[in-house]
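job 3f2a | input accepted
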Amino acid sequence: MASLPIRTAREKLPTFNRRSTPINATPIVLLVNISFVLLVCGSSYLAGSLWGRHSLELHDASLSVRGLFKESYSGGAADPECEEVRKKWIERRVMEELQKHQDKLQQHAESESIPYPNHPASQVKRFPYTMERFATGIARVNKDELDSYFDFGNPVEKGDGTGNEDAIIIYNDKRAIPSSDKSLAHAVEYNDGNGIPLLDTQTATENCDGMNVIFTGNPEHTAQCTAIIGNYESYHIQRWMRTDGGAIDHNLPLVHVSRGFAPRGKSNFYAPPYDGKNSQVKKHWSMLLTFLQNVDSVLEDLEPILKKVSRNNAVVVLTCNHGQSELLVNFACSAQARGFDLGHVLVFPTDKETKELAEGLGLATYYDEKNMGPLPSGGAKRYGDKYFTAMMYAKVLCVIYPLLLNYDVLFQDVDIVYFKDPLDYFQKEPSIQHFDVMFQHDGSNTIRYEPYSANSGFYYVRANKKSQYLFTSLLYHSDLILTWDSHQQALVQLLAEHSSLFGLNVKVFTRDTEMFPGGFQFHQRHQFMKKMLKGETDTYIFHMSWTASKKDKLLFLRQLGEWYVQDKCIEASASDILGRALPEGEAALVAPCCSAKPIFSCHYRDKPSKISCANSETIDKGNKSFW
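job 3f2a | predicted structure (627 res):
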């Protein structure tokens, strides 16, 4: 602000004779007023210099410099400099109001995600300000690249050509948006008219201090939606469906259901019953009590055995009853035919007959009679029957015992044959050493096995606090195994919970991996099976899973050229085979039971076979010949 001219005030001062002229008070008052005006102007100038502000807001106010001057001296004309400043001040205030109005228009346009007047589309944010607390930008990343970069552990299906090629990353905070490339950063936050930008994984996550990873799909092909709500963080997903307990009905309202509820109206997860004659909860309590009363003595017995058979602090464990024993015999005979050393294998038989068979094949055993003795010795007639379910409890015990003694465990079912030693892979492959548990893929992507589809018949566990508590929890949840008729279903749900709750590192190999094929490949990937049979794959084991009965397992293995058991050792005890008692400490069953070469026979032309079985019948109606 310009100060008032001092010269004008001086010209108005009267002259007088100090001797003869009496003192007139009016000039003195005028002088005081002028001095005050100068003081105020100087203060205003000084304040503006110090704070970068001005006193224009007081212009023409009752206490303003102009006002004081006009009141003190009404005869003077208006200062032209002050008038000029006044005009500029008014103009500035008008511009400020216009800018406020323009800002309101911009805010409204952003909230509605539409362009506003005189504003380019590239400046419209992708998310409105009403979502800025949990969504400030979005980017795409190639799904396969993202999984390869982080290896989340989930069995991620390949995205190329599937409609799942890309994953999306939503940035919850502006600070998380990539900053190394300004043009990409702008495209992440603003709509540039070119769709959601595609970034490489490293750039997309370079500023993410934390990242929530969500796997979603629609295996039942329903009209599914996904709601993401900014709120108190939750690491579980709620499932809502239009149902009253039956199949989906579009006329019904959405209601909260179990995550295992299928669109056809079946719930795969239901609470074990406490009441009733066959209470699974009470049965579980009884079994758990026996375990707790004997666990210390069992561990004491096992420790010297594990010390002897373990290799690099790891042991391969199997459990078997007499009804499945010929599959155990085939595992041992096929391994011997290929020259594998099974000195690191420990069998947990559930009956004395199987104990003798295993020892007669040169395998180490531990018979936990108090816990496993009451289990049935008959073979399962089908998947999920009472014999099958009862053996699931033995699968829990034979893994938890070595883990509690701090030994790593490779658990496998008995319907497996070796091509290469799998223990070498789990102990030596650098890329998987940070995982606590690693599973073969089951092959079935049904609701009951979500989110991992882990096969509970072949997996590796590193002994640590997380894995020990995982299998302790599985033991505590054995009532779920009894209720659901599935050890696998209960284990998969605990894997998901412990991964979220404790940070358990879970790895499930993709179902298309060459290393650990099984029933999925046998029944549905015939091109892979042809390559495997020719020795053109990097395969460690083959697991004859996805097969309803033991009878079919035997026939399928014979047809594959993977059966090494002489007929007289099928469904027979050691004494039946030898005609006498088994000599202690001798592998007396190897010679009479194990064939040096595979015993081959054709059975079904629509299933994989080592050589053509085109003249055989089909087992599945309508299937084409494998050859």
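job 3f2a | The chain has four domains: 6-77, 85-119, 121-215, 304-555.
job 3f2a | closed
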